[in-house]
């Protein structure tokens, strides 16, 4: 128990530090790129004086650390700020056309509450698909490493890696949705709209899982204790389930932890192409519109997800292999 | 029925070949009786492990059985059905206990898993009870707690015991021991041989004992077969083979067996020159490691606890002790890779700690360290010529002179000039070690510290390098500090020897003193465990230690050897003994042998 407590306390403290660094980096970078949000909000017709005044009201002319501390204080109270652009109604306030005051804009928390569950659903389904593809292939290839199936798995993996996700997304939307009308996609009107985007992400992720599973199973199989287990009289089934899989699990888990970052990147593009209303789409729009509060909120949430998942991965890894010391 | 009369294990004309047709085993005829020990003696590369494996029907790719038969109670072990049926009746103990268990599961659980697999119908509670009882029987301390510990928490000797338990747990009819004492410290190896002798009295299993060591096979076997290049070249009773070996290979094996108390006299320390080149006074080193069971917990590992000794010019100084006694830490301190926590090291009369950076840099030329692992201490992507010359370049020697000196050093250690541009890959362990020696030698050092430098090499190569060291010493007036666990090697070359136990010197004496008149019970225990055919002055039964050194964390007060000492007295538990001079040049730290105060 003491181990678990020290582990969690140490890792959560590290995690908070990581999140702070990431959020500060994003915060600073956003304010250094060209493009004045006040100008974007007010539109090209507004006079410089009005833009300047709005910017001052919004705190955009304070030094960056001051803005950051202010933002952080709000975050700790559960307030991620208010979108510069998005209206509460869900509609968009493009420059000049919308004259409503800042108070009518949607809060970042509300925007995340709408889009995060959608993205989690997409990510979960993508993971299920990726595992369905890579686990059987990876295991069979690893158990017969060097054989024809192993080579086939390598070719399959290279093919999957080489397919650009935007291309696959467009082709699937065209063929499966538009031509054949098998599975709907584009936008979201029910669970079935998740299938194609999830499949595209799964195709992108599965080669890495496949390869890491193959190589870690193949190397676990080479270990002396596996050959000896056979001589000691353990059944093949037991050797595989209890010893080979167990020893192969840790490297695959670690790859999984790292791949979470890659998956967040994949979500961005795939959601945009399929117009899937998740975090990815929200981010793309926010970036195009210099919607700082939303970008910061998304960065914060992504960093938190990444940190938490990696703490879990390491915790499970130490449970599987007691030699590990994080 | 055939099964009643067939011998336990019979190999008839068995041949195993590589894919290119060359034979690993060639026409082996062997019979293992149902109750008795068959010893198989052979040097490395003779095919011993292949022979051990085929005795359980295990032939690993790409080897193939190309002729003959191997039968267990008359049943053909080549068939996988037979293998499945008879493997529970055979216990197999390999040379590599560190890789015998799954590192991610507790040792006891894995042994119980095996018992459940080969003896269906046993329940887990019963299996656990039997495993703990047997762990206890092979003298694993606190067996119940050890049951739940992982392989990484066991020492090598304890793991080998656990593997023996694993092999014996379902009371097999045949036990195959493939080189099981090879990787162990001498005292632990002697304990394992003693354990096996006890077991053979208790179990009714036939035992095959495969080894390179003539003394251990002579101690345990009823009958010996000598394997050389895949053939049985000689058979006989163990003592007959040890006394009058017939075949050339057997003769060499016997001749190579170290002589400790017979043969040439111990090398004498030089009396003429008495300038100490290296003076070590009361150095200590404690490492602080994380204690995972407590918040911010730290544990102190006392690796070196107040060591003092002098090495004289032209001397061969030996430092011996079991794994984990602090030898390697000491070598790191001596070569100033790490600084001691307290105490001083003087090289040619100058305190290294007080030297300026420039002086220390210059000093290092005279002071070289050679390490154990010949594979990991050469940069793999550099041609060996560059590796050797780099030390001269670092010390600012001109290019032309460097090239000359590299050539000279390579010639001196027996490397051909063609090796200059070779990469280390593909070089043998002995050649790599020569590269290391050349690298140290180009700097014209005065003192060489050899930290287990020869222990990874086979005995033949070891002998060659020892001759090389002797030649270099005669020519350059080098001083050597040998750090080793190999008492026989130290006996052969060293003039003075220090015995180390748990970070302290327990005895320092001339070689004659250590081997003929040891002043510390630990030294006696080490001597009793040396594999030799000599008549020993100390009987294993009287002085061999049980168990292993205690952990250097939280050492008890008093003499740290007390817990294992057969002669311990009350004083020993209270007061730490200091080194005292028994005779001129012979020091020991022991209350028992010390005169009453």
Keywords:
heterodimer, A: 326 residues, mainly alpha, MetI-like fold, 2 domains, two-stranded antiparallel ribbon, 12 helices, 74% helix, globular, B: 597 residues, alpha/beta, Rossmann fold, eight-stranded mixed sheet, six-stranded mixed sheet, 35% helix
Structure report:
The complex is a heterodimer of chains A (326) and B (597). Chain A is mainly alpha-helical. Chain A has 2 domains: 2-107, no CATH class; 111-320, MetI-like (MetI-like fold), CATH 1.10.3720. Chain A has 12 helices and 2 strands; from the N terminus they run ααααββαααααααα. Chain A has a two-stranded antiparallel sheet with strand order 1-2. The radius of gyration of chain A is 24 Å and the shape is globular. Chain B is of the alpha/beta class and 597 residues long. Chain B contains 22 helices and 22 strands. Chain B has an 8-stranded mixed β-sheet with strand order 16-17-18-13-19-20-22-21, with helices on both faces. A 6-stranded mixed β-sheet of chain B has the order 6-7-8-3-9-10, with helices on both faces. In chain B, strands 2-1-4-5 form a 4-stranded antiparallel β-sheet, covered by helices on one side. In chain B, β11 (276-291) and β12 (297-312) form a beta hairpin. In chain B, α15 crosses α16 (429-441). The model of chain B has no long low-confidence stretch (mean pLDDT 86). The interface between A and B is medium-sized, with 26 and 28 residues. Chain B: It is found in: Cell inner membrane. Chain B: One of its GO terms (molecular function) is ATP hydrolysis activity. Chain B: Residues 9-254, 278-527 form the ABC transporter domain. Chain B: One of its GO terms (cellular component) is plasma membrane. Chain B: It is a peripheral membrane protein.
């Amino acid at each position: 128990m003491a181990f678990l407590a020290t582990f969690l306390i140490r890792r959560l403290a590290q995690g908070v530090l990581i999140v702070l660094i990431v959020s500060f980096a994003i915060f600073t970078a956003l304010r250094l790129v060209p493009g004045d949000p006040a100008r974007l909000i007010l539109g090209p017709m507004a006079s410089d004086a009005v833009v300047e005044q709005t910017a001052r009201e919004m705190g955009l002319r304070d030094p960056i650390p001051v803005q950051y501390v202010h933002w952080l204080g709000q975050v700790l109270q559960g307030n991620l700020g208010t979108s510069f652009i998005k209206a509460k109604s869900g509609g968009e306030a493009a420059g000049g056309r919308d004259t409503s005051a800042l108070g009518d804009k949607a809060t970042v928390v509300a925007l995340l509450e709408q889009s995060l569950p959608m993205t989690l659903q997409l990510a979960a389904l993508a993971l299920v698909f990726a595992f369905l593809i890579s686990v059987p292939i990876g295991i069979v290839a690893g158990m017969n490493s060097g054989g024809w199936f192993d080579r086939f798995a390598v070719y399959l993996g290279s093919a999957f890696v080489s397919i650009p996700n935007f291309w696959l997304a467009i082709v699937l939307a065209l063929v499966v949705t538009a031509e054949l009308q098998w599975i709907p996609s584009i936008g979201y009107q029910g669970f079935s709209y998740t299938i194609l985007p999830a499949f595209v992400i799964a195709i992108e992720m599965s080669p890495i899982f496949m390869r890491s599973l193959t190589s870690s199973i193949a190397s676990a199989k080479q270990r002396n204790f596996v050959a000896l287990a056979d001589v000691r009289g353990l059944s093949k089934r037991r050797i595989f389930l209890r010893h080979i899989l167990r020893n192969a699990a840790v490297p695959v888990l670690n790859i999984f932890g790292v791949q979470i970052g890659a998956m967040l990147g994949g979500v961005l593009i795939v959601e945009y192409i399929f117009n899937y209303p998740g975090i990815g789409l929200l981010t793309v729009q926010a970036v195009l519109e210099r919607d700082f509060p939303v970008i910061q909120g998304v960065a914060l949430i992504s960093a938190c997800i990444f940190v938490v998942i990696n703490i879990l991965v390491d915790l499970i890894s130490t449970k599987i292999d007691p030699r590990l010391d994080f | 029925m055939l099964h009643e009369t067939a011998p336990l294990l019979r190999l008839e004309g068995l041949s195993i070949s590589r894919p290119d047709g060359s034979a690993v085993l060639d026409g082996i005829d062997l019979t293992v009786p149902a109750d008795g020990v068959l010893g198989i003696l052979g040097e490395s590369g003779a095919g011993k492990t292949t022979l051990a494996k085929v005795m359980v029907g295990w032939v690993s790719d790409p080897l193939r059985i190309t002729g003959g038969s191997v039968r267990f109670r008359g049943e053909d072990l080549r068939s996988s059905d037979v293998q499945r049926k008879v493997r529970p009746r055979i216990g197999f103990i390999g040379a590599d206990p560190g890789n015998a268990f799954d590192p991610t599961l507790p040792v006891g659980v894995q042994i119980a898993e095996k018992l459940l697999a080969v003896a269906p119908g046993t329940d887990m509670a019963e299996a656990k009870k039997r495993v703990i009882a047997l762990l206890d029987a092979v003298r694993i301390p606190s067996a119940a707690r050890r049951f739940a510990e992982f392989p990484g928490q066991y020492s090598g000797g304890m793991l080998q015991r656990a593997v023996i338990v694993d092999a014996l747990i379902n009371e097999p009819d045949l036990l195959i021991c493939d080189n099981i004492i090879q990787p162990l410290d001498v005292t632990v190896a002697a304990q394992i041989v003693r354990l096996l002798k006890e077991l053979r009295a208790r179990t009714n299993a036939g035992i095959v004992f495969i080894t390179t060591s003539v003394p251990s096979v002579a101690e345990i076997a009823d009958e010996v077969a000598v394997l050389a290049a895949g053939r049985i070249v000689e058979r006989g009773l163990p003592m007959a083979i040890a006394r009058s070996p017939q075949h050339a290979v057997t003769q060499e094996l016997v001749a190579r067996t170290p002589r400790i108390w017979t043969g040439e006299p111990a090398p004498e320390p030089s009396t003429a020159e008495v300038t100490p080149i290296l003076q070590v006074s009361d150095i200590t080193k404690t490492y602080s490691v994380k204690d995972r069971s407590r918040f911010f917990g730290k544990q102190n590992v006392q690796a070196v606890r107040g060591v003092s000794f002098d090495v004289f010019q032209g001397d061969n100084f030996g430092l011996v002790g079991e794994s984990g006694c602090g030898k390697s830490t000491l070598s790191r301190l001596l070569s100033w890779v790490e600084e001691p926590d307290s105490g001083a090291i003087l090289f040619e009369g100058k305190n290294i700690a007080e030297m300026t950076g420039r002086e220390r840099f210059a000093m290092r030329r005279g002071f070289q360290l050679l390490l154990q692992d010949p594979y990991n201490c050469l940069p793999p992507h550099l041609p060996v010529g560059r590796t050797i010359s780099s030390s001269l370049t670092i010390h600012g020697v001109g290019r032309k002179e460097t090239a000359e000196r590299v050539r000279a050093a390579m010639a001196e250690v027996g490397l051909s000039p063609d090796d200059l541009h070779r990469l280390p890959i593909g070089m043998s362990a002995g050649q790599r070690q020569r590269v290391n020696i050349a690298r140290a030698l180009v700097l014209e050092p005065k003192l060489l510290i050899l930290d287990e430098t020869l222990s990874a090499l086979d005995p033949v190569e070891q002998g060659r390098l020892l001759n090389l060291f002797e030649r270099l010493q005669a020519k350059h007036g080098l001083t050597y500090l040998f750090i080793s666990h190999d008492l026989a090697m130290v006996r052969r070359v060293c003039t003075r020897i220090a015995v180390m136990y748990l970070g302290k010197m327990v005895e320092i004496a001339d070689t004659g003193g250590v081997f003929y008149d040891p002043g510390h019970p630990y030294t006696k225990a080490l001597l009793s465990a040396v594999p030799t055919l000599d008549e020993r002055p100390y009987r294993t039964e009287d002085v061999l230690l049980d168990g292993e050194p205690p952990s250097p964390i939280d050492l008890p007060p008093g003499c740290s050897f007390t817990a294992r000492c057969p002669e311990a007295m009350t004083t020993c538990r209270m007061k730490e003994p200091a080194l005292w001079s028994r005779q001129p040049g012979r020091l020991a730290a022991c209350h028992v042998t010390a005169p009453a105060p």
